[in-house]
Amino acid sequence: MDFVIQLPKSRRGNTALLLWQCAFTGFVIAKAMSETDALTVAKVFEESIYRRFEAPSLIRHDRDPRFMKLIQARSRSTLSYRPQANGQQERSVKTVTQTVNVYVEGPLQQDWDEIAERLVCEINNSHDMTRKETPFYLVHGWDAHTTLRAMTTSRGVGKQTEALAWRREINRQHQIALEMAKEYQATEKARRTQIHNDKLSRKEHAT
Questions:
Q1: What is the pLDDT of residues 116-141, one digit of tens each?
Q2: CATH for 184
Q3: Contact status, residue 30 vs residue 120, Cβ threshold 8 Å
Q4: 21/38 Cα distance (integer angstroms)
Q5: In sequence order, what are the residues at sequence separation of 6 or more whose Cβ sits closer than 8 angstroms to the Cβ of residue 113?
Q6: Do 135 and 123 touch, CB atoms closer than 8 A?
Q7: Nearest one of 145, 99, 101, 124 to 28, comparing CA atoms
Q8: Which residues pair with 59 in a beta bridge?
Q9: Full domain range(s) for residue 134
Q10: Paired strand residues for 21
Q11: DSSP state for residue 111 in the 8-state scheme
């Protein structure tokens, strides 16, 4: 688990993201928050993790462990000066953090918390090169399906019009998140390839 903090205040009053990732499947859960004290984090854990998956055998974190006493869970801290020891989690945090930070550069983008949660949805449905499946599939046993596009093609009046506007807004946010996830993953893949090639080149010169 990790925090993404010091984000601009959203329309819903949130200023931080709490991220959880399953070490086995890579499945990520994000929760936008307005408070990050120990009790609030423990309540979010119960709501977002425990109700769905029950208690994990171990929680790895690099934050203040006070809330661990509240939920009585085993934990393992990552040394603050060696965040790379928690590499898998850090990469997911980096993906969400950088994407959200780019999005909130616009002065009117006060729905970053909604975008971030949908970005995590797209990450969970992206093919994992290491695990050879999507995190969603590894957790649920089937591929995710969406009816958003079908939902947004109809027309309505009155309350139906309001519902249609809501569905279209949800679809817009999902599309933004999907494009952001694809763009970042392509950039990150190119960066890692370049690092790998540079290492090989240095070894060849050394020999």
A1: 877 888 788 877 777 788 888 888 88
A2: 3.30.420.10
A3: yes
A4: 19
A5: 10, 12, 14, 17, 32
A6: yes
A7: 124
A8: 75
A9: 2-206
A10: 28
A11: T
- The residue ranges of DSSP E strands in the chain, in sequence order, are 2-4, 16-21, 28-33, 59-61, 75-77
Per-residue pLDDT of 82-111, as tens digits, reads 444 455 555 666 777 677 777 766 666 778
For 183-194, give one letter per residue: b (16+ CB within 10 A) or e.
ebbeeeeeeeee
- E strands along 1-83, which residues? 2-4, 16-21, 28-33, 59-61, 75-77
Structure tokens at 56: 């994990």
Task: Judge contact between 93 and 184, C-beta under 8 A.
Answer: no
Question: Are 98 and 188 within 8 A, CB to CB?
Answer: no
Strands 75-77 and 59-61: parallel
Joined together, the tokens standing for residue 60 give 């790895």
The CA radius of gyration of the chain, in Å to the nearest whole number, is: 19
Q: What is the pTM of this model?
A: 0.60
* Residue in the structure block whose two tokens are 């399906």: 145
3-class state of residue 86 by DSSP: helix
Domains in the chain, number: 1
